[in-house]
Amino acid sequence: MPSAGYVLAALTTIFVITFALRALPFAVLEPLRASPYIAFLSRYMPVGIMLILVVYTLRTVPLTSGWHGLPEAVALAVTIGLHLWRRNALVSILVGTGTYVVLVNTVMATAA
Amino acid sequence: MALVPLGIAFGLLVVQAGLAWWWAPLFSIFIYAGSLEFLAIGLIVAMTPLAQIALATVLVNFRHVFYALSFPLQAVRGRAAKTYSMYALTDEAYALAHHVPAAERSTARILWMQLQCQGYWVLGGILGALLGTALPTIPRGMDFALTALFTVLTIDAFRVTRDVPSPILALLSALIALVVAPDQMLVVAMGLFVVALTARFLLGRRAGRRAGRRPGGVSAAGTAVEEGTRA
Predict the structure, then answer these.
(1) Which chain B residue's Cα is nearest to A110?
(2) Which partner for B141 in A104, B3, B186, B206 could form a disulfide, CB atoms 3.0-4.6 Å apart?
(3) CB neighbours (10 Å) of residue A73?
């Protein structure tokens, strides 16, 4: 088990870099806000970034073994379906995650 | 608030990894970047060298550089308020800021939204960690909460623009990155996506010129792009 000192050092490292990544671009980009290119990016970028994050969280799903990503596909379909229907983020996330937890612990359990 | 159950999942995973429950709120204050916090649990328990943790942080959180392009920080007044606003510029805060109508964006409105996000997230983390301490075993699959969260944010972001090419370009970027650079998938995918969007912007501008609009008129070209993608 890691020592408290190591965990704190790791957390501080992450804190400094994360803050720098979030704060420094503002100093550089403030004058660029009037540009039509920036306006274009700010309009069309968010949906794509979020979609890339979805794929990122699913990148370790085993497609060639076990259940071939079926529990993920089912839970994803439930999340998307619920969100298109009810438009309630909390309900979509809770039920989607609940579906997944139930699936991987019962009918689609794999030896882990 | 969707961040509470997600925080609970995070707290559960902290305890499941063998860390004391009070590390959950400390992670959420020091790191305060959901996906990286989940990732950091694994890295820290494996006693990964700090240099590697630093690199992973740059790669996973590099997307925040792009958030500065359009986050309405100009609506936040005051040095301390701006500093907190930048510190708490998470994926969720970025997405939620766009839900606030431009006319209603004020220091109080944006800071309150960000404080609520972090409050719910820290609270959820503590609840989850305490729950995990009390439970004999922690169910598998709680980490799907992160996938579900980003799925919901994707759908919400899509509803703002109703634009189909952007998510398709993003999906292609993600798939190419998965094949070409699976270890740096996130940064490669986001880099490819920005390049693709830039190409789309330049093509739209050229098409706008060819259609006989005012030569070199940047604002006219911007309008042409909007119209072209809505059609």
Answers:
(1) B140
(2) A104
(3) 13
- Is residue A52 situated within a structural domain? no
A47 to B47: CB separation less than 8 angstroms, yes or no: no
3 state SS of A82: helix
pLDDT digits (tens, 9 = 90+) for B109-155: 999 999 999 999 999 999 999 999 998 887 888 878 878 988 998 99
Interface predicted TM-score (ipTM) of this complex, two decimals: 0.83
pLDDT tens readout for residues B67-120: 887 788 888 899 999 999 999 998 888 878 887 888 888 898 999 999 999 999
Measure in Å the smallest separation between the Cα of B63 and chain A Cα atoms: 8
For B130, counting Cβ atoms within 10 Å of its Cβ (0-12 exposed, 13-18 middle, 19+ buried), the class is middle
Please give the residue range of the domain that contains residue A112: 58-112
| Chain B CB contacts of A49 below 8 Å | 63, 66, 91, 170, 190, 193
DSSP B213: P
Whether the full predicted model's pTM is greater than 0.80, yes or no, is no
Tell me, rounded to whole angstroms, the distance of Cα B118 from its chain centroid: 14
**Pick from B27, B54, B154: which is nearest to A47 by CB?**
B154
Residues A1, A38 within the same domain: yes
Half-sphere exposure of A90 toward its Cβ, with a 13 Å CA cutoff?
7
